[in-house]
Amino acid sequence: MKFIKSWILVQIICAVSFCQPVHAENNNYLLINLTSYTSPESHKAIEYAKAELRKGRPVIIYLNDASVLVAAKSNAQQFQKQQYNLNELIKKGAIVAACPHCMKRYGVAESELLPGIQVAEVSQE
């Protein structure tokens, strides 16, 4: 259990460290570590991010575990609303990054990601 918590912390730090900074008056970033691909859970997290971004709060969404499926163009039918909202967030300055290990695990290629979604760089140390 301790290993899992440490691994998640490293993933979050890597996602934040390697993403381009968002410039806003408020430096109190909202980091959403999205792990679910199910519609209600992913939709709620994305809607919350939209509300905070409208308030001027910088937002980073880290797509982790099965949530990388939401970012795949091939899943547009299943996750139409979430993909629309992710696109809107990116247009308004949010950072969306996907876990490369999770992408590999779920068979999501970088070329399949929605435009503007970054692949997080993970240290190999």
Helix content: 40-55%
**Main sheet?**
4 strands, parallel
Percent of residues in β-strands: 5-15%
Count of DSSP H/I helices: 4
Estimated radius of gyration = 14 Å
- Give the overall shape: globular
Low-confidence runs of at least 5 consecutive residues:
14-24
* SS content category: alpha/beta
The CATH topology turns out to be Hypothetical Protein Ychn, Chain: A
The largest sheet has its strands arranged as: 1-2-3-4
Question: What does this 3D model show about the protein?
Answer:
The protein has a single domain, classed as DsrEFH-like (Hypothetical Protein Ychn, Chain: A, 3-Layer(aba) Sandwich), CATH 3.40.1260.10. Helix 2 packs parallel to helix 3. The protein is globular. Mean pLDDT is 81; it is low at 14-24. 42% of the residues lie in helices and 13% in strands. The chain has 125 residues and is an alpha/beta fold. Strands 1-2-3-4 form a four-stranded parallel β-sheet, sandwiched between helices. It is built from four helices and four strands, in the order αβαβαβαβ.
